Amino acid sequence: xDAQSVRQAFAWAFGWSLLLFFSTLTxxxxxxxxxxxxxxxxxxxxxxxxxxDPRFLFIDAEKELAGLDKxxxxxPIPEGAVDTIAVAGCANLIMxxxxxxxxxxxxxxxxxxxxxxxxxxxxxxxxxxxxLPMALGLDCAAFMRSCWERFAEHRRRIGGCIGIYxxxxxxxxxxxIENSIEPKASLLSRLxxxxxxxxxxxxxxxxxxxxxxxxxxxxxxx
Length: 222
What we know:
Elements: H1 3-37, E1 58-59, E2 65-66, E3 84-87, H2 94-105, H3 110-114, E4 120-124, H4 128-136, H5 140-152, H6 165-179, H7 184-192, E5 196-203, E6 207-212, H8 218-221
Parallel strand pairs: 3-4, 4-5
Antiparallel strand pairs: 1-2, 5-6
Helix pairs in contact: 2-5, 5-6
């Protein structure tokens, strides 16, 4: 058995060991939460915001995102100023990042700037949740409401979205693509032009960053 085969075997064993380890931890955590839910009182566990009025954006009684009509106008994007938009990963800042993305979308020449050859939106970790709707041309305000609706379902869950975050993100992506007024084929065609770049971590066997730019289908994207 040569050295190359030994390295490949070690990488395979190490990768599967990590998968088994974290899968076991996830199962134990979910079991622990299930036991706690039998003891602790059911309540809304979302963190309470500090008093801050007026709120420019809020969810109204009909559970719609309100206040968009009162936002100030956005000036045009300077010619040649935007070739790549990169969104850093930080779950606590997702809504703020979506707000910034929506502001860019409201620029009168945003579509013209982003449809030219070479434009790309890059996202890492939770930043992908913002990069994808921008790359596909989805309305970030509608996407923001979809995120709120999806995660609000788990405000009473002990542990919040820990352990189910990835599943929920896939559901948000799939729902946004399915409910878009633009045909799905038209949305996905933008991926073929390399408009989306996602940074993930690959274990081979040590963790290393990998940039994904090619997505052959909606299934590969999700």
